[in-house]
Write a structure and sequence with these properties.
169 residues, mainly alpha, two-stranded parallel sheet, transferase
């Protein structure tokens, strides 16, 4: 099992844009309204903090590899090598480069209509890190920090997220 996790503030930001891009989901007129629902567990697919907490129970099992979105963005080549090694797939340097190129956000976004149909336009928006800083107020950031500390910080996955590095202003 490959478990990809992402900092909660960017998850909320991405989810906000996803919700507003999907006709089948309720749209939010404001970020503030969405943030309130996100923090009070009123989202489809549940609470991200609970998701992280539950997966933390299994993070040490040998058949589970956890990697963060931020790790992949920082060093895509190393991420691909580690994933291939975990899955037991021997790759040449040429094959690694091909996987890196084809799995880059830009490449996946470019091919998203072929691979995901109309959903591709909603799934592949920016692909960056720390976009949350464009939406969160200082108060919202502090509320998210507090929720992270209460629910996830002490878990293995919480520590893997490097919260201070990616999530604090």
């Amino acid at each position: 099992i490959l478990l990809l996790i992402r900092n909660p503030k960017d998850v909320a930001t991405s989810f906000y844009h996803f919700y507003n891009g999907m006709a089948s989901l309720p749209s939010y007129e404001t970020w503030d309204g969405f943030f309130t629902d996100f923090m009070t567990k009123k989202m489809a697919w549940g609470c991200y903090f609970e998701f992280l907490f539950e997966w933390s129970k299994y993070a040490d099992e040998e058949n589970i590899m956890t990697i963060t979105y931020e790790e992949l963005k920082e060093n895509h080549v190393l991420g691909v090598k580690n994933i291939a090694a975990f899955l037991g797939i021997p790759l040449t340097e040429e094959e690694i480069q091909l996987v890196v190129e084809r799995s880059s956000f830009q490449s996946m976004k470019k091919n998203s209509e072929k691979t995901h149909g109309v959903l591709g336009r909603v799934l592949f928006r920016k692909g960056g890190i720390s976009d949350w800083k464009n939406l969160f107020s200082e108060d919202q950031s502090k509320k998210m920090d507090k929720a992270f500390e209460e629910h996830v910080a002490g878990t293995k996955l919480g520590k893997k997220l490097k919260y201070d590095l990616y999530c604090k202003a």
